[in-house]
Structure to design on (334 residues):
């Protein structure tokens, strides 16, 4: 298959997925204003302004998200690597866990993670509840065991009461993870300039950002980065047109991607496509945090994923568009 044909196929796949998402989420995703006509049939959808969330579970989950008792030495919480005030990341190439151990991949943002079709770079967790359990027992992250975590939480009468009020089974690994999941459901970024543009407000984004969006579609970026989360809804090989890891010449386990989960050679160097929703604020980039700037990330993606060398101006315009995707951080109780 030629490069042009493959790119066309990728675009058709991406747009097809977007149409499915559009048909399901259009009503809830739009804010109807008299005299303003929302844009239809776009590959990207606005984040819904409101979500149904169990507020009691979310409140408890917020406390647990910031609770260092979940780690083996009571020093690390979920928020240590996913700082909500820093767009859900810690700004490091790889996060530091228990006893100063350094992780093997870049910590993705927790913001808008409810819209991902799977969790972690390699998709090894089906949902946020399963994801919340992983770091607790990871020896280089929080380095604990569930029996110890439960025992520590049960020593706190306020936790015992809170869990008993919500969960019939009280404090268990499942209920801890479920509460954290419900808190993370509240962490969305709403009403971004681009979402306002999609809802029909033409002046919500600049002319440069409009050019960037057009280029984003024309180059084919939208084949993988679309839907509500502008990504997070499919897997893709890193190096679709040019072998990325051949040039890097690394043999790190983290670079194997989804192969680590499936052991299927077809999944070698395949990763979950990251969301671009707050990408303007979450450097460094890629699964290994090896890319320092958004501009460099755009150039690498254009070359290895799409087969293009793009101009400086096109790069700046696409970067401006990505900046328009960031909205207001919605928190628990808001």
């Amino acid at each position: 298959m030629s490069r042009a044909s493959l790119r066309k196929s990728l675009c058709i796949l991406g747009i097809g997925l977007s149409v499915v998402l559009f048909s399901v989420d259009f009503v809830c995703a739009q804010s109807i204003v008299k005299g303003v006509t929302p844009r239809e049939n776009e590959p990207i959808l606005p984040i819904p302004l409101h979500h149904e969330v169990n507020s009691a579970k979310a409140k408890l989950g917020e406390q647990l998200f910031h609770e260092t008792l979940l780690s083996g030495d009571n020093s690390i919480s979920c928020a240590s690597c996913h700082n909500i005030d820093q767009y859900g990341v810690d700004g490091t190439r790889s996060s530091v866990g228990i006893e100063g151990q350094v992780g093997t991949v870049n910590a993705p943002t927790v913001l808008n993670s409810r819209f991902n079709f799977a969790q972690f770079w390699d998709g090894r967790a089906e949902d946020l509840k399963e994801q919340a359990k992983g770091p607790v027992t990871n020896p280089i992250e929080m380095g604990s065991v569930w029996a110890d975590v439960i025992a520590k939480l049960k020593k706190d009468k306020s936790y015992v009461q809170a869990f008993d009020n919500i969960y019939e089974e009280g404090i268990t690994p499942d209920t801890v993870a479920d509460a954290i999941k419900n808190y993370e459901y509240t962490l969305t970024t709403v009403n971004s300039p681009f979402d306002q543009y999609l809802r029909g407000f033409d002046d919500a984004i600049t002319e440069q950002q409009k050019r960037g969006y057009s280029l984003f579609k024309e180059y084919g970026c939208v084949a993988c980065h679309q839907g509500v989360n502008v990504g997070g809804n499919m897997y893709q090989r890193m190096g679709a047109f040019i072998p990325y890891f051949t040039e890097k010449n690394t043999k790190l386990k983290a670079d194997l991607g989804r192969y680590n989960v499936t052991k299927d050679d077809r999944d070698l160097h395949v990763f979950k496509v990251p969301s671009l929703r707050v990408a303007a604020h979450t450097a460094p980039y890629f699964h290994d945090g090896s890319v320092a700037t958004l501009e460099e990330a755009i150039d690498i993606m254009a070359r290895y994923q799409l087969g293009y060398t793009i101009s400086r101006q096109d790069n700046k315009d696409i970067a401006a568009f990505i900046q328009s995707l960031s909205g207001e951080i919605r928190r628990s109780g808001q």
User: Anything to note?
Assistant: The radius of gyration is 20 Å.
